[in-house]
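Weekly modeling sync, notes
Attendees: S.R. (lead), two postdocs, one rotation student

Agenda item 3: backlog of single-chain predictions. S.R. asked that every request posted to the team notebook include the full sequence so nobody has to chase files. The rotation student volunteered to paste the first one in as an example of the format we agreed on. Action items at the bottom.

Example entry:
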Amino acid sequence: MSNLDIALSGATYLAQLVDKDGRFKYRFDPVSGSVAEGYNVLRHCGAVWAMLEVSGHSDQKKDIVASGTRAVTYLLNQFMKFSPDYRYACIAEDNSIKLGGNALAILAMLSVYRATGDGILKTLAESLGKYILKDWKADGDFVHKRYLKSGKVSDFKSMYYTGEALLALLHLFEASGDERWLEAVIRSEDALAPSDYGAAEQSHWMLYALELLCQYRWNENYARHAGKIVRHILDFPEYRSWGRSTPTACRSEGLLAFVRLLDQGKCSQELAGLRIACLEAIDLNLGEQLRFQLDTGAFIRGGDDHRKNEVRIDYIQHNISALLYRHQLEKL
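Predicted structure, as returned to the notebook:
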């Protein structure tokens, strides 16, 4: 099977995991059939985004789009709230408003908007974007967690949320053409880049955001920032030794985003020289990732503990995204 065929198999399987109400079968043992408790709205949104992205490359995408539409309807029914008033929609789970949930909800809603043309989704996504901007901070970051009822800010920080937020704002710019979204990302990146934000964390979400930012507003400093994250991934490949599918898939996603940035053809020769090393690492990673694929199209967790055979929607999400974007490079 080609990389695209494998990605389509995973996207189709994700679509089949969406029930009639729009909720995913979130986490389960494919051998025993036992379903674990718990749910995570951020992963719900990420799974919708990934399967809709893949579906755009299929001639038979109707079922995937239908499942994505149900899943976004479930998202709106169960998790969309308004705080502090109707001007600011947000995604709240268990009284917690998390930056990553708002950001990936924007990606999910806009992916269905692109597939269906339902303008209400763009309007609601823009409202979430306004909430994100409301919580912008002078250091370029955002409030990562706030409590819905009290409005109090938590000390909680995620290494991934900031990149997710910047990517979401760029997708809002792409969908609307409204420069305020792009300018907000530039304002953040100009503050974050001097500290090499996301490099030590090997943040694939920051690489997604920087690739798209460079596409819309080229700046060599942004490309160098991306290069520092990539060098950390290349220089410290310990994630492969963990024997788990998702950490490897996430690095593949980030490296692929950087190759797309390089292929814009505007980078310095020094940065362009990383392309071969990136492709070698990507293909090594993909070979590892395929060890975790099931005949159904799902991907298991891996690792050395009791959860090694578990399927969870984000395991599928990250693996199919990496496979899709590798396919896209093959077409160039």
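Discussion: group reviewed the output briefly. The CA atoms of residues 231 and 277 lie 10 Å apart.
Action items: rotation student to repeat for the remaining queue; S.R. to check formatting next week.
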